[in-house]
Amino acid sequence: MNIVSSAVSRTVADPPASSRFFTSHLGCREILAGEEFVALGRNDGARYFHPTPEAIAEVTSLLGPGHLS
Predict the structure, then answer these.
(1) What is the spatial distance between Cα 58 and Cα 48, in angstroms, rounded to a whole number?
(2) Is a pLDDT exceeding 80 seen at residue 44?
(3) Residue 52 has pLDDT above 90, yes or no
(4) Where along the chain do its domains lie?
(5) Residues contacting residue 66 through CB under 8 Å, at least 6 positions apart
(6) Could you identify which of 12, 55, 58, 61 might form a hypothetical disulfide with 18, taking C-beta atoms 3.0 to 4.6 angstroms apart as the criterion?
């Protein structure tokens, strides 16, 4: 098996603090950032998405239940 990329989504209370940890300790860089989320990536294809609980609730209310799992 040859894994070429991976993605991790974590709900966090403080996306900027999470970003600082991942960029400082795990070799990530910010790809996209907003008030309630941060998207990070690494050169090996790994991707990380860190929204706040409020952001998840807002997206769920817009899309309806069952679209985020």
Answers:
(1) 19
(2) yes
(3) no
(4) 6-63
(5) none
(6) 12
DSSP β-bridge partners for residue 50 = 38
57 token code pair: 């609730």
- H runs (alpha helix) in 1-69: 15-25, 53-63
| Residue tagged 């807002």 (tokens) | 58
CATH 3.40.50.880, applies to 6-63: no
Are 47 and 7 spatial neighbours (Cβ–Cβ below 8 Å)?
yes
pLDDT in tens, 26-42: 999 999 888 888 999 99
Q: Is the pLDDT of residue 45 over 60?
A: yes
| Chain position carrying tokens 């996209």 | 32
DSSP state of 6: E
